[in-house]
Write a structure and sequence with these properties.
The complex is a heterodimer of chains A (517) and B (337).
Chain A lengths: L3 H6 L7 E12 L2 E12 L2 E6 L6 H8 L7 E6 L2 E3 L4 H6 L2 E4 L11 H5 L6 E2 L2 E2 L1 H14 L15 H14 L4 E5 L7 H16 L3 E5 L3 H7 L2 E6 L2 E7 L5 H9 L18 E10 L3 E9 L3 E5 L6 H8 L7 E6 L2 E3 L4 H6 L2 E4 L3 H5 L6 H6 L13 H14 L16 H13 L5 E5 L7 H16 L3 E5 L3 H7 L2 E6 L2 E6 L6 H8 L13
Parallel strand pairs in A: 3-10, 3-11, 6-9, 9-10, 15-20, 15-21, 18-19, 19-20
Antiparallel strand pairs in A: 1-2, 1-4, 4-5, 7-8, 11-12, 13-14, 13-16, 16-17, 21-22
Helix pairs in contact in A: 5-6
Chain B lengths: L2 H13 L3 H20 L6 H26 L7 H23 L3 H28 L4 H19 L4 E3 L2 H7 L1 H4 L1 E2 L2 E2 H19 L1 H11 L1 H6 L4 H27 L1 E3 L6 H11 L11 H20 L8 H17 L1 H7 L1
Antiparallel strand pairs in B: 1-4, 2-3
Helix pairs in contact in B: 2-14, 2-15, 3-9, 3-10, 3-12, 3-13, 3-14, 4-5, 4-6, 4-12, 5-6, 5-12, 9-10, 9-12, 10-12, 13-14, 13-15, 14-15
Chain lengths: 517, 337
């Protein structure tokens, strides 16, 4: 408790306990995922829940909010034993869980979603004016510029998150559980969210906050509970723990080195060069070179055009203009099939939506991109099995049963499988978009080392990430984009957070600057 | 994971009956037992041969439909397409009699025409829905009307009849047999085996599964989604043409009522067989069993007076709903809770 100032603002655990889980156990069939876990949520406290993927965090919060029933132990609400038959019962008692996968009806508008199932009525009819006014008030309170009449499908993911929070607020949540709310938010949106969480805390709301991001927990939470392999490891004031301590408690071992040691390539050959590439409405005159064995980072705020630029390079988007050369020779890439032939592979950031077939097991997923390698006329199943065995070994994919559908995998295992899938084509250039979104710290480090191995084997990597530590820890050079332009390519000592932000916000760098030959 | 653990997982799954995989087969066995109980004659060679022969038309078309549905599409035009191809075959073969006579050349040209029309009609369905970005339901609803009215137009509202001599020559394609097995059953079996290999063992089949389960993942996996989807409609068209080739010698005629509701029977056979209507999972053997089941129901109703034969459609409808309910497997999980 060295930092007295922090403690003055952070209400301590002396506030009354609102909701407790006592000796909670949970089994799904024969598999036990929680073992006698106890947790107390105090009014006016932000309680962080920390653990690797598969540690049992999501199961625990689903039990606390009524989505699952515990197989052992009990819930205590305001000192009285309670049991929630379903999530509705939980919500009636003011316990609201905001899921990692957002639960919004995409075809409905923001206001319709917020009042879904509890519409305000006047007589027999819906009182749309009242609902709109209330939605506008909530959006105002969240400092969000979202029109209540917008359809959810037209909103970016970050705005959808805000809609979920507004919905919870409108339900008068006084025990709010957030499952990784910042996974899809940008820096500014994270700040707004944190302000909201702090405000709710002042109002006496008990908040349980799941995150993998230790920085966030350090800045936001009062106490932290760490779970590992379904067991309670520790509950302590955040002020007593350093980030390294938290990481160690979570993983159960020291993470010796987060990022791989890599020999920085010096004057290596240019394997990919892009000149004057434009995409209507998204990218303006982008030029850059990629060298053998290097990691070229692409930084920028959401909407700066990074993904659009990459999709244009691999033929998923129409290019308005621009040339692409591989090893100095111009190439024409009009489809992903062309990109594959040119040795360029793309790892999507949306592993569930466009990366993996969630209803299938690992084998067809692994070989889908490189199917011709496993037989042109008939698929060689033995070769597939062998490739799968190799991939499981090489990328440390942990699946209890190889027949499990990949939709039931943890995010980390899905990401490893996706990486393995892309590497089946043996590409020279790998474009990786958000490699560690929603992944725990141990697996993150593993994926960083996989990326390091690729470059050591002479492959080149383009990295798109909104996480500053991985951008700085992995990239040899960092191209920064703002409003569709590459505003600068940072090398050496310029690769720091400050310079990146200056370029990303357009303070530094010329709009439309090109790389010098 | 050790190999011992792996065996354990595998064997523990084997104890419970996998209704999803075995359901259609068990239901068919049940129907056969029911049929035998109602009438001894059910299991006679003649009756069984009759069931399988009748099942062949819908079955062959349904094998094609399995590809379309597995890849996330639907084809409503197959019944009209069959009628149109029948009509065109009859018109052309009748016209050829004058120059080529009622022999092998005329019949072979008729068969060739059938294949060209089937493949062409399938390609149209596929290309319009993929390149034109119109939902397959709409496109094939449209072509369904077009083919139906084309055959009505060709027959001038009446019936087209195949030249008597050609019919005599062509007859064995339906009525003939090899080693006692009727020709349609042989074709049906051949189509099913080819369909099974194509769907389950080739890259093309794998791509159908991928597109049906998530088109965007397929696209990001460098699969030419439009081409594969179009090919599934071409396969469907080819299957319709094969079914038509063995159908024409049966009656030797075609009219506006030929092949009515075949599309729904084919889709029903596919769904009873365990293929998912939303795509991503398909089973050829299930489809074969589904087609045989539908025919068996009609056959049993013919053999008994307990239920009117006019209720055939109602019983089939009931079976379809029950089959899908059982396959979903929810009821099993609920029971175990």
């Amino acid at each position: 408790m060295t930092d007295a100032a922090v403690h003055a603002v952070n209400p301590g655990p002396d506030r009354p306990v609102r909701l407790s889980g006592r000796q909670i156990s949970k089994s799904f069939g024969p598999a036990q995922v929680l073992f006698d876990v106890s947790i107390d949520l105090h009014a006016g406290e932000v309680h962080a829940l920390l653990g690797e993927n598969g540690a049992g965090k999501s199961t625990l919060v689903k039990i606390l909010s009524g989505y699952h029933q515990p197989t052992g132990g009990e819930l205590v609400l305001d000192n009285a034993s309670v049991s929630f038959a379903d999530s509705e019962a939980g919500e009636k008692h003011g316990v609201i869980l905001i899921h990692q996968e957002l639960n919004l009806a995409e075809q409905l508008t923001v206001e319709e979603n917020i009042f879904l199932g509890r519409e305000i009525k006047r007589g027999w009819f819906l009182d749309k004016a009242a609902m709109r006014a209330e939605t506008a008030r909530l959006m105002d309170q969240l400092q969000c510029d979202i029109d209540p009449r917008t359809r959810i499908r037209d909103l970016p993911v970050s705005d959808r998150q805000m809609v979920e929070i507004a919905k919870a607020l409108s339900k008068k949540a006084d025990i709010l559980i957030l499952d990784e709310p910042t996974a899809v938010l940008t820096g500014r949106e994270v700040d707004i969210l944190f302000d909201q969480i702090r405000r709710l805390r002042e109002q006496g709301v008990a908040i349980l906050y799941i995150s993998h991001k230790l920085d966030e927990i350090k800045t936001l939470a009062d106490r932290v509970t760490v779970l590992r392999d379904g067991r309670h490891i520790v509950t302590q004031p955040v002020a007593d723990l350093e980030k390294d301590d938290m990481a160690r408690l979570m993983v159960g071992r020291d993470i010796r080195q987060m990022f791989p040691e890599r020999a920085v390539p010096d004057h290596a050959d240019v394997v990919l060069s892009v000149r004057g590439l434009s995409v209507t409405g998204a990218v303006r005159d982008a030029s850059f070179d990629l060298r053998r064995g290097e990691v070229l980072g692409f930084a920028g705020i959401v909407g700066a055009g990074r993904t659009a630029l990459m999709e244009a390079i691999i033929g998923l988007r129409d290019r308005e203009s621009g040339e692409i050369a591989r090893n100095g020779a111009p190439v024409s890439i009009r489809s992903l099939q062309d990109a594959k032939k040119c040795g360029i592979a793309y790892l999507t950031k949306d592993r569930k939506g466009s990366g993996l077939l969630l209803n299938m097991d690992m084998r067809p997923n692994l070989t889908l991109l490189a199917l011709e390698k496993f037989g042109r006329i008939l698929i060689d199943r033995k070769a597939e099995e062998a490739a799968l065995e190799k991939a499981i070994e090489a990328f440390d994919i942990r699946a209890a049963d190889p027949k499990t559908k990949v939709g039931d995998f943890s995010g980390g295992n899905q990401q490893k499988l996706l990486l393995a899938k892309v590497m089946e084509t043996d590409p020279d250039i790998v474009i990786i978009d958000e490699p560690t979104r929603g992944i725990d710290i141990g697996t993150k480090s593993q994926i960083y080392h996989f990326i390091g191995d690729l470059t050591n084997r002479g492959k080149s990597v383009i990295l798109l990430s909104s996480e500053m530590p991985e951008m700085l820890g992995l990239s040899d050079r960092i191209a920064v984009m703002a409003a569709g332009h590459i505003t600068g390519i940072l090398e050496g000592n310029d690769r720091n957070e400050h310079e990146i932000m200056r370029h990303a916000t357009g303070i530094s760098g010329k709009q439309g600057v090109s790389v010098h030959e | 994971m050790s190999s011992a653990e792996r065996t354990k997982t595998a064997s523990s799954g084997g104890f419970s009956i996998d209704f999803k995989a075995l359901g259609p087969f068990l239901a068919l066995v049940g129907l056969f037992i029911l049929g035998t109980a109602i009438n001894e004659a059910f299991l006679s060679g003649g009756n069984l041969s009759n069931i399988f022969t009748r099942a062949a038309f819908i079955g062959i078309i349904a094998v094609g439909a399995t590809f379309v549905i597995t890849a996330g599409g639907i084809d409503l035009s197959v019944g009209s397409m069959a009628a149109f191809i029948s009509g065109a075959m009859i018109v052309v073969m009748n016209g050829l009699v004058a120059t080529l006579g009622a022999g092998i050349e005329t019949v072979l040209l008729g068969i060739l025409l059938s294949i060209v029309l089937g493949v062409g009609a399938g390609a149209i369905n596929g290309l319009v829905s993929t390149k034109g970005k119109i939902e397959a339901f709409i496109v094939t609803l449209g072509t369904m009307g077009i083919y139906r009215s084309l055959v009505t137009y060709m027959a001038d509202g009446g019936t087209l009849s195949l030249d008597f001599d050609v019919r005599g020559f062509y007859r064995p394609v339906y009525y003939g047999d090899i080693l006692g097995i009727p020709m349609p059953v042989i074709v049906f079996f051949g189509v099913a085996v080819a369909g099974y290999i194509l769907l389950n063992m080739t890259p093309f089949g794998r791509k159908c599964f991928a597109i049906g389960s998530n088109e965007q993942v397929a696209q990001y996996s460098a699969i030419n989604v439009d081409r594969i989807k179009t090919l599934t409609y071409v396969i469907q068209g080819l299957c319709v043409s094969l079914a038509t080739i063995i159908y024409v010698p049966r009656l030797g005629s075609a009219s506006s009522s030929t092949g009515v509701l075949w599309e729904l029977e084919a889709i029903a056979a596919v769904i009873i067989g365990g293929t998912m209507l939303k795509g991503g999972y398909g089973r050829i053997w299930g489809t074969v069993v589904g087609a045989i089941m539908l025919t068996t129901i009609g056959n049993i109703l013919n053999l008994t007076d307990a239920i009117s034969n006019y209720l055939n459609g109602a019983v089939q409808g009931l079976i379809i709903i029950v089959a899908v309910f059982l396959q979903r497997g929810d009821w099993q999980r609920k029971k175990s809770k």
